[in-house]
Amino acid sequence: MIERFLNGETTNGEERELYDFFAGADVPAHLEPYRAMFAWFDGGLVADAPRSVGASRPRHRFVKVAVTVMAVAAALVVCLMPRQPETYIEGYIMRNGVMITDPEIVSREMAASWELCERQLRCYEEMEDDVDAFMLELATFENKTLI
């Protein structure tokens, strides 16, 4: 019947029987932990609630304090942890699998690369001019031979 009471399935009459039983002197030892709870219900829930059956207040307090201490410790670790400086690398080059970030070296290498690209472009433009001149000569030659 205790289980039915805890599940809210008892009638008022059954609850009165439980209150009277636990108020009596013949409560078996294994049911003794329920005595304070039923006395509280019988008293109209006026006084402070009794401790839960099988629960101990000091353990509950210890767990609450332990969790609080761990949370504070975690917050302190996060807040006080040395942070790595944020570095912004504007440019870099890779040489033999090594990243080089020294601005002077990077700038010098970038200028050299740009110069090489410009030389290549001039070379291709000259080749294009040569091809155009060759095509013009070829067309002129073909026209002369056809006439």
Describe the structure in your own words.
The chain is mainly alpha-helical. It has three domains: 2-42, no CATH class; 54-81; 93-146. Helix content is 63%, strand content 4%. The protein is built from five helices and two strands. Strands 1-2 form a two-stranded antiparallel ribbon. α2 crosses α3 (35-42). The model has no long low-confidence stretch (mean pLDDT 77).
How would the blueprint of this fold be written?
Elements: H1 2-6, H2 12-23, H3 35-42, H4 57-80, E1 93-95, E2 98-100, H5 103-146
Antiparallel strand pairs: 1-2
Helix pairs in contact: 2-3
Quick tags:
147 residues, mainly alpha, 5 helices, 2 strands, 3 domains, two-stranded antiparallel sheet
* Major sheet: arrangement of strands: 1-2
Radius of gyration: 46 Å
Helical stretch count?
5
Structural class: mainly alpha
Summarize the structure in short.
The chain has 147 residues and is mostly helical. The chain contains five helices and two strands; from the N terminus they run H-H-H-H-E-E-H. It is 63% helix and 4% strand.
